[in-house]
Write a structure and sequence with these properties.
- It is a single chain.
- Helix 6 packs across helix 8 and helix 9 runs parallel beside helix 12.
- The protein is built from 14 helices and 13 strands.
- The longest helix has 27 residues.
- The protein is an alpha/beta fold.
- The chain folds into 2 domains: 225 residues, no CATH class; 206 residues, no CATH class.
- The strands form 3 sheets. It has a 6-stranded parallel β-sheet with strand order 2-1-3-4-5-6, with helices on both faces. It has a 5-stranded parallel β-sheet with strand order 8-7-9-10-11. Strands 12-13 form a two-stranded antiparallel ribbon.
Amino acid sequence: MLIMKIAFVPIDNRPVCYQLPKMIAELNPEVEFFIPPIEFLGDLKKSAQTTNLTEWLKELPAVDSIILPLDTLAYGGLIPSRKCSNSFDDIAQRMSRIKNILSEKNAKIFAFSSIMRISNNNINEEEKDYWSLYGTRIFQYSYDFHKRGISKIYIPSDILQDYLATRKRNFTVNKMYLDWQKEGFFDTLIFSKDDCAEYGFNVMEAEELESLGGVTRTGADEIPLALLARAFNKKISVAPVFLEPECKNLISNYEDISIEKSVLGQLELAGVSVTDKQDADVLLVVNNFIKRQGEIVMKKDTKPFAGKWKVPDKPYIVADVRYANGADNEFVKQLISEGLGENFLGYSAWNTSANTLGSLICAMKYTKEKNLAFKRLQAVRLLDDWAYQANVRQQLESPDVSLLSEKMKPYEDKIKSLLGFDFSVKYSFPWDRLFEVKIELN
């Protein structure tokens, strides 16, 4: 058996960043997977232990590929990249040491760095403190400045200067990475656009990076999984099938490109070839939206799936993106009533459209057979994306594990029947909030 050795540094310790890639790697016995201890990684309130991660990379045995979220190593994580006060010189010195360590590994480096996001809200949970007062104003200032070349939105000068200085530091770091790419240090380097809109400083920066030869992709948390898929040298062809084909030009929430372009971009990044239905190894069924993408938790409505689901007659995966942050209940009802069939290879409805697509495509590429590891992964996705995000989350006012366990039981039974797989579950809220849940199967 040919073993491919892959090292993977997660963005942080969230289940979708740490647990999910491990479960995907377990799908294929031909892969030996290396991942740092979870305590080295950051969470909502603390940064990653960059010194320990650097030493972990230094002690790493010979591997074929290394997947790196550069924000984690440079700033301590995606959230710290927007909050930390380190200077450009501090970051450059730290990353140059890591570059020297990795240059001696003779491994392919698949890396990504985020283009600093601009959230259109006044929630400072993942931003600097002043976001609670000026978040939406900063977003609108950025939007207007890009679109019109000027903005009349008032923001106190000290806050605006601090915000722009942080953006400038991160953008200068990204241009440094681009220079390394041109030297041949990275096999693949992606600049991710997280929580994007049509206009803004982040879009301007993406355009400049592209003009300098950089590659950008909409998304963030799924990018390491897309790179994990790219690192696995398995040739496979996929045909996208949109359930609402006349609406594939519409743009998803938190993204700046059409759902069709998002699909094609994720497939390309994962190293998958696109073809027509007749010649495809796998069909990517996309439950896309009409008029606009819904979002149950944000009370953004949309028309649910109203067609007649028919199980495809060849291998298929399902990207359920009619809603952001959770499944389309009407669509899942039909999956349950009709059954998944022998050709089913995966389901996802995780967070943004890009999150769903990147994780789904990666899991499909690693799937070798529909064994216990495969059933475990599908159970977790359905429990999280459908049972919790689209249903039970709306019934909770706080992270109450006992109430969650009680509310999830009816959905567990339906998933067990659908997958033909019996399991017991342990739930927790790792970041002590309702946004993400950790699901452990016993």
